[in-house]
Write a structure and sequence with these properties.
By secondary structure, the protein is α+β, with helices and mostly antiparallel strands. Helices cover 34% and strands 33% of the residues.
Length: 431
């Protein structure tokens, strides 16, 4: 018999639940994130493609300067050294041995004051020989003059004799001529008197010519002797002056410096012994970069501040020789030199290369080292940003650059160093 039975397990009754659909599904979030990433990627690409890279900068760590319009003078700073207005060098006019030092280095001397005494036996011997030669010439000239006087006396005696003989012959001739005309004497006696008279006339003429020639010759001899004596005297004076040059004297009033002479030391002719500084004024010897050699001329001015007071200077001499990339100029003070300055003192001078003009001015700063004056960071009107702009800068002085193009009066420019900005195109200024 088959028994019926109920299943051991009961059928479970099921109830349906409503499941709420999620609003931000994982798939949707990933989709949105992907779209946003693509947008950011496109935006970043566009930003970097535009080249406007930015950098945040603290305003307190930079310098912002205004572009202004005003008076501009092309000035360069130079250094000068104070020197005496004139320096006279002492050279040995004649060589010799230092016998005596009469003045020490650094002393004040007056014109003509003996400084050194040298000795030179060759010069002293030459002087003695010259004096002897002059004495001999003088003796010869005096002998010539004495001979001339004696000859003149003889000539005058002979002339007196000739004149007397002529006068007597003329008297006899005139008398015999009268007697002959009166038939008192014969023709023979008259002719004798006439011949004697004619002879005396010719003798007188010859005597006059001879006396004239002798006088001319004697005068010539005396003139030659006098000229020779004069030349010998000049040579003697020159030799005495050469011996006198063995005593070295100060040519001007001033201070003796750089004296190089010791007792017993031998000095050659022309050797430098020292120098004398004329202290009635000062000049400034200035070193200038060779870059400006074509722009520096005599008459240009400069300014210097000494002990808190401004002084003007003028270029009076330009040395065009270039050494180690620099050349030199001499500048004089306009008016009195400052009190208290000393030889060798260094003075800073602002040398003007042009007259004052009106120009657009940009204060100097460290930016020039990185840009070379070709571009700057110009600040926006609200002061929140600074962007790169191209400019052209011209002349410069210690305070300003001359703006040729790229900026206008009232513009603000970052003038501090750009060393840390790299290739940034824009600065975001943060306070």
């Amino acid at each position: 018999m088959i028994q019926s039975y109920k299943p051991f397990f009961k059928k479970e009754q099921t109830v349906d639940r409503v499941i709420k659909k999620r609003k931000w599904s994982r798939k949707r979030i990933l989709t949105i994130a992907g779209v946003a990433g693509i947008i950011l990627l496109i935006a970043g690409s566009a930003y970097f493609a535009s080249g406007k890279s930015k950098l945040n900068v603290d305003v307190e760590r930079i310098t912002v300067s205004d572009v202004t319009k005003g008076a501009f003078k092309d000035v360069i700073p130079v250094n000068g050294t104070v020197q005496p207005i004139a320096t006279i060098y002492l050279d040995a006019l004649e060589g010799g041995r230092v016998e005596e030092k009469l003045v020490e280095d650094g002393a004040m001397v007056y014109k003509g004051q003996p400084i050194l005494r040298l000795s030179n036996t060759d010069l002293e011997l030459s002087l003695a020989n010259q004096e002897t030669a002059v004495f001999q010439v003088l003796t010869q000239m005096q002998n010539t003059k004495n001979n001339a006087v004696q000859n003149s006396i003889q000539q005058l005696n002979q002339k007196a004799e000739v004149d007397n003989s002529l006068a007597e012959a003329e008297r006899v001739y005139n008398l015999n001529k009268h007697l002959h005309n009166e038939k008192v004497i014969g023709l023979q006696e008259f002719k004798a008197a006439e011949n004697d008279y004619n002879y005396q006339v010719r003798r007188k003429r010859l005597n006059t010519q001879t006396l004239k020639q002798d006088s001319s010759s004697m005068n010539q001899q005396i003139s030659q002797a006098t000229a020779s004596y004069g030349r010998m005297q000049n040579a003697l004076q020159l030799m005495r002056r050469k011996v006198g040059d063995l005593v070295v004297r100060a040519p001007v009033d001033g201070q003796l410096t750089s004296l190089d002479a010791e007792m017993g030391q031998s000095k050659n002719k022309g050797e430098r012994l020292g120098q004398i500084d004329v202290l009635n004024g000062y000049k400034i010897r200035v070193d200038v970069d060779e870059h400006y050699i074509s722009r520096v001329f005599i008459g240009q001015s400069g300014e210097a501040t000494i002990a808190g007071k401004p002084y003007k200077l003028t270029i009076r001499k330009v040395y065009t020789q270039v050494n180690n990339g620099r050349f030199q100029v001499d500048m004089d003070f306009e008016g009195a030199a400052p009190e208290g300055i000393r030889r060798g003192q260094t003075i800073q001078i602002r040398l003007a290369l042009s007259d004052e003009t009106t120009a657009l001015l940009l204060p100097k700063g460290g930016f020039y080292q990185q840009t070379g004056g070709n571009w700057v960071f110009k600040v926006t009107e609200n002061g929140s940003k600074a962007y790169k702009v191209d400019v052209q800068l011209g002349r410069q002085n210690p305070e300003y650059y001359e703006v040729v193009s790229g900026l206008q009066p009232g513009d603000k420019v970052v003038t501090s160093s750009y060393e840390n900005y790299g290739n940034m195109q824009e600065l975001v200024l943060k306070k």
